Amino acid sequence: MMKTKAIENMPASASQFNSANIGLILLKLRTFIALFIILGFFSFTVDGFLAPASLIIMIKHISINAFLALGITFVIITAGIDLSIGATLGFCGMVAGYMISHGIVLPMFGIAIFPSVWVIVPVVLVVGGLIGAVNGVIITRYNVAPFICTLGTMYIIRGAAMLLSGGETFPGLQGNPQLGNTGFDVIGAGSLLGIPYAIWLMFIVAGVIAYVAKKLPFGRHVYSIGDNERAAELSGVKVNSVKVWVYTISGFCAAIAGIVVTSQLVASHPATGTAFEMNAIAAVVLGGTSLAGGRGTVTGTLIGAFVIGILADGLVMMGVSEFWQMVIKGIVIIIAVIIDQMQSKMQYKAAITSQKTVG
């Protein structure tokens, strides 16, 4: 009798809130759910899909997209976009290839200096960061829309990569022992405890960005700008400075991806990285980061990269046509955006309901 009375006295809004809350939780966990579904599907349809060797190869492939996605996460949280990361990846790979193949030419002295890998890698990272910084400065100082700015720089950087080699490939980037520039290929081929360096580096980068997002004031400023840029500015946040830095981080991470890809291929080509930005954006959105800004997590982005990567590799192992792979990826991106909009609406309704209940 007491139990029946308690249920009868329960407000109608409570049961509605519980059902809505469950739906919201499921939407937030959509990336994990999608990952388990994809893993389960391919484990039954592809022989040896979950074998340790296959998993390591897949995660190694995923790391490339993960670097780009992790870098662009802060950009999207600020309600921006960076379409130049794929071109930046390719250009940074060309810079590395040029320095290994031709060195740093000093015409006034008639010589060329061939730097070691310990010099080449930092130089390439600086180049990537500078490209991102230029994007940030153009967007903030001249009030150019991020989409237009990064679309323009994408073409500029891709053209510059072509000019650097005349459209040709820089092959055989193992280096020359006599010149002291060997070891670049180890970055892509080497491993520690049986796990490739690229995978270790992916988790290190993810850990650093997650720490910045959760523990440092910069991370809080990034979220506040995406949530309400005007309010963030009034509260003392240096909006333009933060935006320049988020694009710098995006370019820096694209440079890391360029180094890893070039090292794995032991060659650099100016077209490398074409359309990679689409996979990165898909991973970020699938991971729960809102294109409207203000919401997103590094963990979600990393899981999103795993979903996109495992889906791509699984389809290849099944022998699915590359054309159908493009169709499926496009469908995944559209569904991810639709679900993101659903989550935003449900969160808004939940907030309104909570306010009415308190009132």
Automatic annotation (TrEMBL):
InterPro entries: ABC_transp_permease (IPR001851). Pfam families: BPD_transp_2 (PF02653). It is a multi-pass membrane protein. It is found in: Cell inner membrane. Keywords: Cell inner membrane, Cell membrane, Membrane, Transmembrane, Transmembrane helix, Transport. It comes from the Bacteria. Coiled coil: none annotated. GO terms for cellular component: plasma membrane. The chain crosses the membrane at residues 67-100, 106-132, 144-166, 186-213, 244-267, 273-291, 298-317, 323-339. GO terms for molecular function: transmembrane transporter activity. PANTHER family: ABC TRANSPORTER PERMEASE PROTEIN YPHD-RELATED (PTHR32196:SF21), ABC TRANSPORTER PERMEASE PROTEIN YPHD-RELATED-RELATED (PTHR32196). Belongs to the binding-protein-dependent transport system permease family. AraH/RbsC subfamily. This is Ribose transport system permease protein RbsC. It comes from Vibrio aerogenes CECT 7868. The gene is rbsC_3.
